[in-house]
Specification:
It is built from six helices and no strands.
Length: about 120
């Protein structure tokens, strides 16, 4: 099961990187609020990262994902059809934090322990 979460994490990172740097427009994604997309992506990434790599501390996982979010924004600042947005990083941070809360307090500990 752990390998499945690891695969999901790397697949999600690749998909997010593609969507964050492509000039193509995806109607489904454009019809939602951009900050909700960021929040959802990093909420899911946090869960996949912690479930796939359980030995990683919450602080380390959060720091890695926050750096990844900043990296996306820096890359976008160099693309002619994108721009850097601090509010996107804030939305990423909220997603990370609520992912932590969900894994820590909402999902039964024995479920998480079974995956590790």
């Amino acid at each position: 099961m752990k390998r499945l979460f690891q695969f999901g994490f790397f697949t999600a990172v690749a998909a997010i990187e593609y969507l964050a740097t492509t000039p193509l427009h995806f109607k489904v994604l454009e019809n939602t609020w951009d900050k909700a997309n960021h929040f959802t992506a990093f909420f899911v990434l946090y869960g996949l990262l912690k479930l796939g790599f359980g030995n990683l501390s919450a602080i380390a996982a959060s720091a890695l994902l926050l750096l990844y979010g900043v990296q996306i924004e820096v890359v976008q600042s160099f693309l002619p059809y994108r721009e850097f947005s601090l509010l996107d990083v804030v939305a990423d941070s909220v997603g990370i934090f609520l992912g932590f809360v969900a894994l820590r307090y909402l999902i039964p500990k024995q479920w998480v322990d079974q995956i590790k």
